[in-house]
Amino acid sequence: MADVRDRIAGAGDEVVGAAASVGVAVQDQPAYRWLITGGLWIYGLVHLLLAWLTLQVMLGHPADASNQGSIAAISRLPMGRTLIIAVVVGMFALTLWMLIQGMFGYAWLSGGKLAVRKIASLLRAAVYASIAVTGVSVLTSGSAGSGSSGAKHTSASLLGMPGGRVWVALIGVGVAIAAADQIQRGVRQSFVKYDLQGRPPHWAVQLGVIGWVTKGLSLAIVALLFLIAAYRHHSQDAGGLDQALQWLRRLPAGQPLLALMALGFTCFGIFSFVWSRYARHDAREPEGKIG
User: So what's the pLDDT on residue 33?
Assistant: First the structure.
């Protein structure tokens, strides 16, 4: 029996080793590196458009200030369809990047830190994939949908189930954890260690700090809306980033706060352009090469 277990374990190790070798081989391809560079440039453009849409919300103009809204805005630019194809390709490239990092990266870490980094990479892969899917939706149907309407639909479906309040509250808690991770990533500048290699300019790091904190704060508001929806048992209280920014606008100091959010998204967009040059690829990187 022990011999069978040893054989199974050995076969499992061989499969994992072969998969890791494939991951390393993919990361060594120049075309793959170029796709990641392009994907991060696209990601930066999405955030610059998000900043512009946030300013539209601040001014009281109708605008969907979300990733979906940014993709819709890209589709309305000259050569919009070509740009959307670039968005889809770039975001799927970033999805592959994070999947490889999540499965085989961070070999210079261990224990809890390694688990956290892997989970964070897989969650970011899901975010990039959702943007890519939105791009596909624009190409096939001409519509990007709405992040807030999707959140409301999800909340309504869950609230109609037994224990629905608990499920909606758990979504809120999950989003809050993601928000806290992004805020600490900016405050502690941990993105420099985990996302970058080489020596990025100091000014770019500072833009990253502002950008990650801004993204985290916006997610924190989204988490709050889900928790309010669970407490009130009312799906209309839930929403995505667009509704979070609309909620912020209704506060006494809403317009200055939205201006700061727009500035933060702009900082992250510019940071993403620099990030494209210093992006970490470390499926096989030893501990001594931490940037």
Answer: 85
Contacts 24+ apart (CB under 8 A), 139-144: 139/81, 139/84, 139/85, 139/88, 142/75, 143/72, 144/64, 144/68, 144/69, 144/71, 144/72, 144/75
Domain count, the chain: 1
> Which residues of the chain fall short of a pLDDT of 70?
1-28, 143-161, 163, 233-239, 282-291
Is residue 263 assigned to a domain? yes
For residue 168, being part of any structural domain is answered with: yes
Structural domain of 249 = 30-289
Any idea what DSSP says for residue 142?
S
Is 21 a domain residue?
no
CA dist., res. 185 & res. 192, Å (int): 9
Q: Please tell me the pTM assigned to this model.
A: 0.80
